[in-house]
Design goal:
By secondary structure, this protein is of the alpha/beta class. The strands form two sheets. The protein has an eight-stranded mixed β-sheet with strand order 1-2-5-6-7-8-9-10, with helices on both faces. It has a two-stranded parallel sheet with strand order 3-4. α5 links the parallel β5 and β6. The protein starts with 11 loop residues before the first helix and ends with a helix. The structure holds iron/sulfur cluster (SF4). Iron/sulfur cluster binds next to loops.
């Protein structure tokens, strides 16, 4: 299937990002921007936001849309939370997203490492807002509470696709469990903005996407991202459909009519895309 015009994005901006990536790599820091082959890599860095991948770049799960390496992860690096916090401070980031592969090999699924990283960032950069894009921690409420208590500004957990496609796309995950992560967080911290994201073009129907949007609103999700699945490698799922930008606009309009505070919906949108703007708009609405 030929890649449509609207997907092609100008490469020049990547040059800026590549120099920054080299700098981060020299400090033994991973960004999901690089691991997941994100198309917006130039944009975010220029906006003063970045997404750090903590706890290594090897995942214990095998989602068939994701470019992150799969296998047996390395032991945690106890210095990493401090290094991330120092880099956030050095870069003067106004908004940072912290994410990780799934670490089902750890007894707390990595919750304490998230909490340590967030606390180190908040100590050094109290004005930087911190969003965490977390795995499902196998549904552990204790893990969610630990991460929320570390002082995060946004909790993000991607629902990724529609329930019918879970066995194909995210075989080790569970749709209800992912919804429940958001539900538990909203009951534990009612004023904490919740965010989730979908990738489309994997074979889902429009009605299924709208039904997922309803489910997310039901668990008090405030911010939604919807983007086009792009095949990171031939080993991963093929694109079933390139969704037209008009359909993405429909999802945005419908989502905000349905009650989301902010919907970013366009082919190249990813879960950290314009993350700072989403939080700002959410906060403005809360103040009204
Ligand atoms: S759990 Fe996350 S990082 Fe791991 S394979 Fe799935 S999407 Fe990728």
């Amino acid at each position: 299937m030929a890649i449509p015009e609207w997907i092609k994005k100008d490469i020049p901006r990547r040059k800026f990002a590549l120099s920054l990536l080299r700098r981060l790599n020299s400090r033994n820091l991973n960004t999901v921007c690089e691991e997941a082959k994100c198309p917006n890599i130039g944009d975010c860095f220029k906006r003063g936001t970045a997404t750090f991948l903590i706890m290594g770049d090897i995942c214990t799960r095998s989602c068939v849309f994701c470019a992150v390496k799969k296998g047996e992860p390395y032991p945690l690096d106890p210095e990493e939370p401090l290094r991330v916090a120092e880099e956030v401070n050095n870069l003067g980031l106004n908004h940072v997203v912290i994410t990780s592969p799934s670490r089902d090999d750890l007894s707390d699924r990595g919750a304490s490492f998230y909490s340590k990283t967030v606390s180190e960032i908040k100590k050094r950069s109290p004005h930087t807002t911190v969003e965490v894009l977390v795995p499902d921690f196998k549904g552990s409420l204790d893990a969610i509470k630990e991460v929320v208590d570390s002082g995060i500004d946004v909790l993000n957990h991607n629902i990724e696709t529609v329930p019918r496609l879970y066995p194909i796309v995210r075989p080790e995950a569970n749709y209800e469990q992912s919804l429940n992560i958001l539900k538990e967080a909203s009951e534990y911290a009612p004023s904490l903005p919740l965010k989730s994201g979908l990738i489309v073009g994997l074979g889902e129907e429009k009605e299924e996407v709208i039904s997922v949007m309803r489910d997310l609103l039901f668990v008090n999700c405030n911010i939604l991202t919807i983007g086009q699945y792009l095949r990171p490698s031939k080993k991963l799922l093929p694109v079933m459909r390139y969704v037209h930008p008009g359909e993405f606009r429909e999802y945005k309009i419908l989502g905000e009519e349905m009650g989301f505070d902010y919907v970013a919906s366009a082919p190249l949108v990813r879960s950290s895309y314009h993350a700072d703007e989403a939080l700002m708009i959410y906060k403005d609405k809360e103040l009204k």
